[in-house]
Amino acid sequence: EAATGTGARVVHYDASLEQRLTQRATVAADLHRGLAAGEFHLLYQPIVELPQGRIVGVESLVRWSRADGSIVSPADFIPVAEDTGLIVELGAWILDTACAQAAEWRRLHGPDALRSIAVNVSARQLLDPCLPDLVAAALARHGVPAAQLTIEITETAVFAGGRALATVNALSRLGVSIALDDFGTGHSSLGLLRTCPVDAIKVDKSFVDGLNGTPQQEAIAIALTGIAQSMGLRTVAEGVETEAQARRLTELGYRHAQGFHFARPMPPAAIDDLLRAEDPVAA
Ligand code: C2E
Ligand code: MG
Ligand code: MG
Ligand code: MG
User: Fold this and answer.
1) Which of 5, 75, 92, 159 has fewest C-beta within 10 Å?
2) How far apart are CA 68 and CA 177, in angstroms?
3) Which atom number of ligand 1 is nearest to the Cα of residue 73?
4) Which residues is 120 bridged to in the sheet?
5) 48, 61, 154, 204: which to mutate for ligand 1, most atoms within 8 A of CB?
C-alpha cells in the first residue's frame, strides 16, 4: 500500500504505527512494574452441569487492577505480554496462583467439590519447553493432583510453532486435561482432534449465539457436540447468556456450560459461597 499510495497516506501510516509501538512499549513497562507490585489477580468463572446449573469446575481469568483503580482486560494486555515475552513470568504466576487456590478449595470443600480448575495458556507459553515442568512443579508445590487441572489452549496456539504440539503432548502425559478453547473459530478444528491429545472442547460463544436462530445456525452446534461425544470428549458451551440458550443446549445433548446466564467471573470467596450453598454438610 505504501508503494502505491500518496505521500500523505505513507506519513499517516507511519504515524499510527509509531503511536502503536509507543503504546506497546508503555504498556510493556507498566506490565513489568505491575507484576512486581502485585497488581494482578485471578477471577474464577463457574463451569456448570446442565440442566441444573450445578457448579462442577471453574476457569481462572486474569485481571490487572492498576494503582489508579482502573481494571485492564486481558484482551488488552495478554497480547502485549505475549509480544514482549512477559507472558512467561505472568503465566508462571497465574499457574501458581490457580494451583494455590485449587489447594485451598480442596481443604475447605473436600477434594471432589470441583472436578477441574482451568488455566488459559497462550501461544507463546506453548513455545516454552519449560512449561510442562512449570506445571508439574506448581501442582506438586500445592499438592494438587494433575487430573484436577485443565489447561485451555487454542487451535491457533497449537499451530503457532512446531514445538507447541510437543508441549501439549508433554502436558497431557502429566495427567492434566487439555481443553481446546474457542473451538470452531480456528482454521483446522477437526483436524486438530486427530493430532492433539484433547480431552474437552469449549464450543465458542459465536455458535451459542446462533442457537434458536435458523436451522443452519444450529446445525454447527449440533454437529460439534456430536463429534465430541463420539470421540469421548467433554463439551463445554461458552458464553451462555440466556435461559433459552441453556434450554436449547440441554435439548441438543450438551452437558456443560459457562456464561453470564449462570455466573460471571468472580473472586474466590464467591466461589466458596457457591460451593457451601451446594454442600451444606461441609464445614
Ligand atoms: P477465554 O479463555 O475464551 O475466556 C472466556 C471469556 O469470555 C472471558 O473474558 C469471560 O469473562 C467471557 N465470558 C464468559 N461468559 C460470557 C458470556 O456469557 N458473555 C460474554 N459476552 N462473555 C463471557 P475475559 O476474562 O475478558 O478473557 C478474555 C480472554 O483473555 C480469554 O478468553 C483468554 O483468551 C484470555 N485470558 C484470560 N485470562 C487469561 C490467563 O490467565 N492467561 C492467558 N494466557 N490468557 C487469558
Ligand atoms: Mg479459556
Ligand atoms: Mg473460551
Ligand atoms: Mg472464547
Assistant:
1) 75
2) 38
3) 26
4) 152
5) 61
Give 236's strand partners. 202, 256
Taking a 5 Å cut-off on Cβ, the residues next to ion ligand 2 are 120, 152, 181
Q: Read off the C-alpha cell for 211.
A: 442457537
Cis peptide before 197 (omega within 30 of 0): no
84 CA distance to ligand 2 middle (Å): 21
Cβ proximity of 149 and 117 under 8 Å: yes
3-state class (DSSP) for residue 165: helix
> Measuring CA to CA, how many Å separate 208 from each of 33, 75, 199, 205?
38, 21, 20, 5
Cell of 246: 441453556
Q: Which ligand is nearest to the CA of 186?
A: 4
What spatial distance separates the first Cα and last Cα of the chain, rounded to whole Å?
A: 66
Ligand nearest to the CA of 60: 1
